[in-house]
Amino acid sequence: MLTPERHRLILQLLKEKGIVKIQEIMELTCSSESTIRRDLSQLEEQKFLKRIHGGASRLQGKLQEPSMIEKSFKNLHEKQLIAKYAAGLVEEGDCIYLDAGSTIFEMIDSLPNDIVVVTNGFMHLPGLLNKGISTFLIGGLAKQKTNALIGRGALESLEFYRFDKCFMGVNGIHPQFGFTTPDQEEAMVKQKALFLSREAFVLADSTKFSEISFAKIADIHEASIITNDLEDEIGHQYLNRTTIKVVTA
């Protein structure tokens, strides 16, 4: 089977199913694993799909943004592993920024008490206050879909603070296009917090890699990444670009 025909079949399968396995494509096209892996790499470079463990999946829309409720139940175990590791990076006496992300929310139970937290996530407040953590909530417009405070008020509030570390979620991670999110105003708040921090960490499960959303937050080298799983082929794209910590159970 010629390469263009294999590519057409792969994209047709993705359109129908959303996710396809390498083994499935091999059987359909009567091709070797190395051939299919090469096909997937080419299609990913052309931004038609993204590779995942054992196969490929469709790319999400640039403006697609799940609600906080939807995100809270997706890949929960992986998020908890990532969050627990990230919380272990926080030391007593730190001043940190917590972004309004669902993975960031999972950090709260594991944080030390003797810290100061600034956040734009109003869903984080009960957990932080229950732990007795000194907490500052920035101002701004309350965005219903992500429970985040954004806009001019949020940006102006952030100017009053400086952070030892910041922790944030993103919708897309790409070696060339950096960290992205669907909402431009939310991207600006994330960007500002990152700029004001001595160290910056992006918490993201493996589904966020190779995704590109509408609004850029920062270049890939501007934050370290904490994730749960990464194929060698994908991880190789980030060598010498940033630091990636893969957390396993």
Topology at a glance:
Elements: H1 3-17, E1 19-21, H2 22-29, H3 33-45, E2 50-52, E3 55-57, H4 68-73, H5 76-87, E4 95-98, H6 102-105, E5 116-119, H7 125-130, E6 134-137, E7 141-143, E8 148-150, H8 152-158, E9 163-168, E10 172-174, E11 178-181, H9 184-195, E12 197-203, E13 215-218, E14 224-227, H10 232-236, E15 244-246
Parallel strand pairs: 4-5, 4-9, 5-6, 9-12, 12-14, 14-15
Antiparallel strand pairs: 1-3, 2-3, 7-8, 10-11, 11-13
Output the helix-strand order.
HEHHEEHHEHEHEEEHEEEHEEEHE
What's the overall average pLDDT, rounded?
90
Biggest β-sheet: strands ordered side by side in the sheet: 6-5-4-9-12-14-15
* Annotation, overall tally of beta strands: 15
**Global outline:** elongated
Q: Which structural class matches the secondary elements?
A: alpha/beta
Please bin the fraction of helical residues: 25-40%
The gyration radius over C-alpha positions equals 19 Å
Largest sheet: 7 strands, parallel
Unreliable stretches: none
- Cα-to-Cα separation, first versus last residue: 41 Å
Strand content: 15-25%
Q: Count of helices?
A: 10
What does this entry look like structurally?
The chain is an alpha/beta fold. The chain has helices at residues 3-17, 22-29, 33-45, 68-73, 76-87, 102-105, 125-130, 152-158, 184-195, 232-236, and strands spanning 19-21, 50-52, 55-57, 95-98, 116-119, 134-137, 141-143, 148-150, 163-168, 172-174, 178-181, 197-203, 215-218, 224-227, 244-246. A seven-stranded parallel sheet has the order 6-5-4-9-12-14-15, with helices on both faces. The chain has a three-stranded antiparallel sheet with strand order 1-3-2. The protein has a three-stranded antiparallel sheet with strand order 10-11-13. Strand 4 (95-98), helix 6 and strand 5 form a beta-alpha-beta unit. The longest helix has 15 residues, at 3-17. The model has no long low-confidence stretch (mean pLDDT 90).
